[in-house]
Design a protein that fits this description.
Layout (H helix, E strand, L loop, with lengths): L9 H12 L2 H13 L3 H29 L3 H9 L4 H31 L9 H9 L2 H19 L2 H28 L4 H9 L3 H6 L1 H15 L6 H7 L7 H29 L11 H12 L3 H34 L4 H15 L1 H5 L1 H31 L1 H8 L5 H33 L8
Helix pairs in contact: 1-8, 1-12, 1-13, 1-15, 2-13, 3-4, 3-11, 3-12, 3-13, 3-18, 3-19, 3-20, 4-5, 5-7, 5-15, 5-16, 5-18, 6-14, 7-8, 7-15, 7-16, 8-13, 8-15, 9-13, 11-18, 11-20, 12-15, 13-14, 14-15, 15-16, 18-20, 19-20
Bound molecules: tryptophan (TRP).
């Protein structure tokens, strides 16, 4: 077996992890839900979820990855014994599931990016969405997106993922900041800020039982937890640096990008009098496309905006594919390129239903959000909190000067607070799935 790859630098690891975290979740889901769920007051709930629940959970995944230095399945096996491999396998399977439809949405973004310089969607934003979102067009774009992801992963950890994300993450920050600054100059931008950020406690109060599980679920999805992505990335860490500091930077940057996206999108929408309607997977595409159509520099703005979304989506998809490729490369003689290619092909096939109908895409997503993701996080927490226990504690504080007292607080947070929050989220998710009937596939 050839020697296992590692990151060339600490910054490379952090940026790759930020690249994984910053994705469609931040730019589509996050700002729109914030606006809908009470603006600044939702932001507080989300921050509490990200810092109080997401951060400790991320440290749990980092501890497993850096300690074992293996792919996510073998990492759980090596640290806890063969039977725990199932936890890693669960995460890997869910990553596979999510990437299948994530790539379909990535394909839509490619279509919007390509159409922006010529303003193809300007005449009929809703019609354009129905034309590209399902059917043969969507299938082709899904294949193109997947091929791009396979390309980067095939190049390797240092030469592919690290090099690519080192350029991608700063570009996302820069372009989004530029768009937000431009949006600030528009007449009527104020209404956008008001929608996004004014604290609306009544929205929070009336929807509390939707909002809390959403905030927790969103924190997991957005921070790329629950499917071995962070285990895998941490397994390439060679240094002795503070995992706590790294996880902290990742959480901060991830939230920052979500807020920045909101500061760019809502002034654009409100300046054009467009209602940020959030129902259905396509609504956000349609409303932003409508805003670009109405702006003088719409072609340029649209191109920049969809470029950001595409870059963010790609760097997240890369991390999901890497989880599976890492397992195959660690365990077989198969090289990176054929492994990535074959897995990419299989993912393409699993994504076919989602590419053919947005109802299927929604079903895949709902199941992932409400059932699979919390289930997998729960299994990881159980393992790290109670099986690995003090060994995980040592790994978390190793390289940081926070000491074992901090480690003990972390361990008990994982065992009790995070565990209870995820259990509650899962219970509420299951209720809507089974009682609400969402478990039934849309055939
Ligand atoms: N975090 C990404 C987003 O916000 C999606 C993602 C990438 C993800 N890798 C993941 C979600 C692993 C869960 C697990 O769009």
């Amino acid at each position: 077996m050839t020697e296992r790859e590692t990151w060339a630098s600490r910054v490379g690891f952090v940026l790759a992890a930020v690249g994984s975290a910053v994705g469609l979740g931040n730019i589509w889901q996050f700002p729109f839900k914030t606006g809908q769920f009470g603006g600044a007051s939702f932001l507080v709930v989300y921050l509490a979820a990200a810092v109080g629940i997401g951060l400790p959970a991320m440290l749990a995944e980092f501890a497993v990855g850096r300690r074992a230095k293996r792919n996510t399945i073998d990492a759980f096996g090596a640290l806890g014994g063969r039977q725990w491999k199932v936890v890693g396998a669960l995460g890997l399977g869910i990553g596979f599931w999510i990437l299948s439809y994530y790539s379909v949405v990535g394909g839509w973004v490619i279509r919007y990016l390509v159409a922006s310089p010529t303003g193809t969607y300007f005449g009929d934003a809703a019609g354009y969405f129905s034309a590209v979102s399902a059917g043969t067009d969507a299938l082709v774009a899904h294949a193109v997106f997947m091929a791009l992801v396979v390309g980067v992963v095939a190049l390797g950890v240092e030469n592919g993922i690290e090099r690519a994300t080192k350029v991608m993450v700063p570009s996302v920050l820069l372009i989004l900041a530029g768009l937000a600054a431009f949006a600030f100059t528009l007449d009527g931008a104020g209404a956008g800020y008001a929608y996004f950020l004014s604290p609306d406690l009544s929205a929070l109060r009336t929807n509390l039982w939707d909002i809390v599980p959403f905030a927790v679920g969103q924190a997991f999805f957005s921070l790329s937890l629950g499917m071995g992505a962070m285990v895998t990335y941490a397994s390439y860490v060679d240094g002795e640096d503070s995992l706590v500091a790294d996880a902290g930077s990742i959480v901060v940057l991830n939230t920052f990008v979500g807020v920045l996206a909101g500061l760019a999108v809502f002034p654009l929408l409100f300046a054009q009098g467009i209602d940020p309607n959030t129902s259905g997977p396509g609504a956000v595409f349609v409303s932003t496309a409508g805003a670009f159509a109405a702006l003088p520099a719409g072609r340029l703005l649209g191109t920049l905006f969809f470029a950001v979304v595409l870059i963010a989506a790609l760097s997240s998809a890369i991390s999901l594919l890497e989880v599976v490729v890492s397992y195959v490369v660690d365990n077989t003689g198969v090289g990176r390129l054929p492994a990535a290619g074959t897995i990419g092909g299989a993912l393409f096939l699993l994504g076919v239903p989602s590419a053919l109908s947005t109802a299927w895409l929604g079903w895949f997503d709902t199941l992932a959000y409400k059932l699979l993701l919390p289930l997998s996080v729960l299994a990881i927490l159980l393992f790290v909190g109670w099986v690995l226990g003090r060994e995980a504690l040592s790994e978390v504080v190793h390289g940081s000067d926070l000491g074992r007292r901090f480690g003990a607080v972390w361990l008990w947070t994982v065992r009790v607070v995070v565990f209870a929050a995820v259990l509650g989220t899962l219970a509420l998710g299951l209720q809507t799935l089974f009682v609400g009937g969402a478990i039934v596939p849309p055939v």
